[in-house]
């Protein structure tokens, strides 16, 4: 029997995940956590084979999803972690895998794919949601999955945009032309495989560029 701990700050999500996980009769949910603090405490007392965790949960410790993944990887290096996220884009996928996740599921598809993801990570392999695989193939089919790298100036532009500044304001502050700032923003979004400002701001928040 595969032992699972699930973590999500929405009780209804945990209920649904538990039903899906235990439906096959081959897995059992041995613990539930409503955030990173409870998850970390639970792992100290409850042995498990797989952790299924939401990406963004409120908490005093490691509320940032990447921080939580990194901590789990350091403290439990052999424990597979399946990350479920609403931010279903290639940038989040790459960053999550680089921080130790063994599987990344889009929240919209988690009910269908979760049992398959559990089987896959228990076998020591990586699982990626179908919608994310499609995005990855469309973005850069020849590239391996790795965390995207922005130049220093691109990071600066993304950080300032996410903090609420406009392209014009950034250009004035850093003494570059508006067209240059626009180009750096566009290049950064291409590198991250992000197509909207909302996703760009979410990425900046998730990686700690802005609070």
TrEMBL record:
Is DNA-binding there in the keyword field? yes
Domain HTH luxR-type, chain residue ranges per copy: 143-208
Among SUPFAM superfamilies, the record links this protein to: C-terminal effector domain of the bipartite response regulators, CheY-like
Q: InterPro entries, per this entry?
A: CheY-like_superfamily, NreC/VraR/RcsB-like_REC, Sig_transdc_resp-reg_C-effctor, Sig_transdc_resp-reg_receiver, Tscrpt_reg_LuxR_C, WalR-like, WH-like_DNA-bd_sf
> Could you tell me the keywords of this UniProt record?
DNA-binding, Phosphoprotein
Q: List-wise, which residues carry 4-aspartylphosphate? A: 54
**Does the record bear Phosphoprotein in its keywords?**
yes
Enumerate the Pfam families for this protein. Answer: GerE (PF00196), Response_reg (PF00072)
Q: Where is the Response regulatory domain?
A: 3-122
Give the protein name, as stated in the record.
Response regulator transcription factor
């Amino acid at each position: 029997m595969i032992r699972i701990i699930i973590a999500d700050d929405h009780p209804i999500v945990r209920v649904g995940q538990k039903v899906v996980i235990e439906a096959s009769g081959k897995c059992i949910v041995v613990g539930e956590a409503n955030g990173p603090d409870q998850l970390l405490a639970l792992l100290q007392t409850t042995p498990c084979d797989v952790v299924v965790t939401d990406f963004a949960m409120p908490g005093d410790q490691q509320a940032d999803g990447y921080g939580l993944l990194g901590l789990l990887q350091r403290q439990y290096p052999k424990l597979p972690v399946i990350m479920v996220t609403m931010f279903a884009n290639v940038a989040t996928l790459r960053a999550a895998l680089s921080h130790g996740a063994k599987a990344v599921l889009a929240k919209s598809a988690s009910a269908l794919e979760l049992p398959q993801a559990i089987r896959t990570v228990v076998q020591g392999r990586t699982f990626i949601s179908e919608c994310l695989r499609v995005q990855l193939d469309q973005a850069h089919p020849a590239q391996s999955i790795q965390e995207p790298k922005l130049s220093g100036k691109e990071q600066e532009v993304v950080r300032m945009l996410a903090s609420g500044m406009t392209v014009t304001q950034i250009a004035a502050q850093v003494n570059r032309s508006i067209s240059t700032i626009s180009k750096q923003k566009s290049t950064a979004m291409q590198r991250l495989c992000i197509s909207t400002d909302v996703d760009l701001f979410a990425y900046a928040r998730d990686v700690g560029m802005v609070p």
